[in-house]
Fold this sequence. Notes:
Blueprint: E1 9-10, E2 16-19, E3 26-29, H1 39-52, E4 54-57, H2 65-72, E5 96-99, E6 121-128, E7 136-140, H3 141-147, H4 150-157, E8 160-164, H5 178-187, E9 193-197, E10 199-201, E11 208-210, E12 216-219, H6 226-240, E13 246-249, E14 256-260, E15 264-268, E16 278-284, E17 298-301
Parallel strand pairs: 3-4
Antiparallel strand pairs: 1-2, 2-3, 4-14, 5-16, 6-14, 6-16, 7-13, 7-15, 8-9, 8-12, 9-17, 10-11
Cofactor: Fe(2+)
Family: Belongs to the TfdA dioxygenase family.
Region (Disordered): 293-314
Amino acid sequence: MTTTTAPATTTDTGLRLKKLGQHIGARIEGLDLSGPLEEGTVSAIRAALNEHKALVFTDAGISSDAQQEAFAAHFGPLTTAHPTVTFHEGTPKTVLPVDSEESVANQWHTDVTFVINPPQISTLRAVVLPTYGGETLIANTAAAYKSLPRELQHLAQTLWAEHTNASDYIRPRTVQGEKEQQYQQAFVSQTFRTVHPVVRVHPLTGEKGLFIGAFAQRLRILGVSAHESADLLRLLQAHVTRPEHVVRVGWEPGQVVVFDNRITQHYAIDNYDRAPRKLNRITVAGDVPVGVHGQRSHSLEGDSSQYSPIVELP
Length: 314
């Protein structure tokens, strides 16, 4: 059996881009992100992100938190590290170390959906990598919505889900050490509850995506029991994580990954024997999600204004 490798193509704006899958993912080569970027380059990256949802930058040139901050800030105001988990001493307040000593994000989720305006973009930079494993899976939730039968699409458009940080994302039975316990306690030190549309309209592309994941704990439907609600969530979530909708990112030194948090979910594979693994995450502030019929998300509990400003576009 022979296989072929898709060649890298050069976009009209000069990005050297290689598609990684039919529905999601592209690798961008030969672009130094360590310094200021021209407006045209930023626009080209945004256009590529709109199309491919997740971008992998090889040899990006970013070697410090300050450089990662400057790169992320090209796309809008930054959030602080997290609504409840405090940033580490000696790191900028925008940086959340995703450290295997503290937590393992091996559940499908969209970042920080328990607040009123989750980040629009997440950036991850490889800092310490295990010798094997530790890949990140990223799924296209617009492709998931499109794969639903039309009748389920229409049903999903009417649904709203309550998202909370007091969720299955943090599971006490998986805690293995003191640092993990401290992280877990910090994560739920303040409760956030927000109601989001199950089908979210992307403000730039107009695409519809399933906006659920691990923080979505229950659907708010009149006349539907908690058991039926959970079954509906499981059904919709299964479409998000179909292999056809997913790209698998194998981490390399010097690599930066950027994904559109409004229309993706991701999962960190726990397959590296808990060897040291650290990625630094910086996120760009987002807008309030809007459903198919124009309704906006609303908060039930928790004030996230100190975590993130609300932006309208992009």
